């Protein structure tokens, strides 16, 4: 009989054997397998929760002329297509607002792949990936308190579901997952900065034993400035305790043309790529909305009690590392 084609061929490979072995070890790791089963339940619980709350799932945008500008030093990943520059999605912030232009859509969400080229030097170890997924949602006419309540209910629901369904997996990971009590604590960033200094998020995360909120950050131009208290912002982060840190950010949004322009200008965001979005805003097409996005891997990492985010991923992309798969 003829030998099957390809048998006996040894391709020349430049990969050291220990690299291949460590890749194999990751792909067949029992703990990671438990994490993947927990992830599947996590995604299903989120999906069910969204459906029960009439939040419509939309498909992700991967590449577009506009994406979240993220003013904290993340580099843009861009591709060129027939002389058009497309940015890979850093978050679906603007597309979420646009998806709610229709009078018939009240609330939407997306499990959205994001690319953020975080500089390796400044990325705290164990917390960052340059490719990750976030559950990004937006609700028409919602206030910041509405979104915080919604998220608290989601967290309790998802954690409870996982605790019930993934007993064996949590045991294997030696994780006693506490179910948080609602309402979660709320801190104002201006207040905690006075007590803990610039590192307030980390300090509080180390001190607290249950997820909590920090509100009022002066950062992205799309988060709404409080009209009754200029200089205060109607936004919020959900922080996991035990030092796990930030897991969600969100806010009420600027949706009026003059406010959007003013805030973009103040943040030095180049407006040219945003022309179509801005024209829609000028027509008054954007409704008032609020929303948030939370990282799937970060939530999973906290649920599983695993410090290094790479250890909850099949194909982790850690800033600065060499990627093989
Ligand atoms: N998705 C977040 C939000 O809705 C923004 C972000 O990820 N930077 O506010």
Question: What fraction of residues sit in β-strands?
Answer: 15-25%
CATH architecture of the domain at 18-178 and 256-312: 2-Layer Sandwich
Shape: globular
Care to count the β-strands? Answer: 11
State the CATH topology of the domain at 18-178 and 256-312: BirA Bifunctional Protein, domain 2
Strand count, sense and barrel status of the largest sheet are:
8 strands, mixed
Record the strand order, biggest sheet. Answer: 1-5-6-11-10-9-8-7
Averaged pLDDT, please?
96
**What hetero molecules are bound to the protein chains?**
asparagine
Question: What's the name of the CATH homologous superfamily of the domain at 18-178 and 256-312?
Answer: Bira Bifunctional Protein, Domain 2
Estimated helix fraction: 25-40%
**What class would the helix/strand composition place it in?**
alpha+beta
Distance N to C terminus:
36 Å
Radius of gyration: 21 Å
CATH class of the domain at 18-178 and 256-312: Alpha Beta
- Reading the helices and strands in chain order gives HHEEEEHEEHHEHHEEEHHEH
Number of helices: 10
- Ranges where pLDDT stays below 50 over 5 or more residues in a row are none
Polypeptide structure, described:
By secondary structure, this protein is an alpha+beta fold. The protein has a domain at 18-178 and 256-312: BirA Bifunctional Protein, domain 2 (2-Layer Sandwich). It is 34% helix and 18% strand. It has ten helices and eleven strands. The protein has helices at residues 17-27, 30-52, 93-99, 144-165, 167-172, 189-196, 200-207, 257-266, 275-282, 296-304, and strands spanning 56-57, 63-64, 78-81, 84-88, 107-115, 131-140, 186-188, 212-215, 235-240, 245-252, 289-295. The strands form two sheets. Strands 1-5-6-11-10-9-8-7 form an eight-stranded mixed beta sheet, sandwiched between helices. A three-stranded antiparallel beta sheet has the order 2-4-3, with no helix packed on it. α2 crosses α4 (144-165) and α8 (257-266) packs antiparallel against α9. The radius of gyration is 21 Å and the shape is globular. The chain starts with 16 loop residues before the first helix and ends in a 21-residue tail after the last helix. The model has no long low-confidence stretch (mean pLDDT 96). Asparagine is lined by residues 68, 70, 91, 93, 134, 136, 249-251, 291-293.
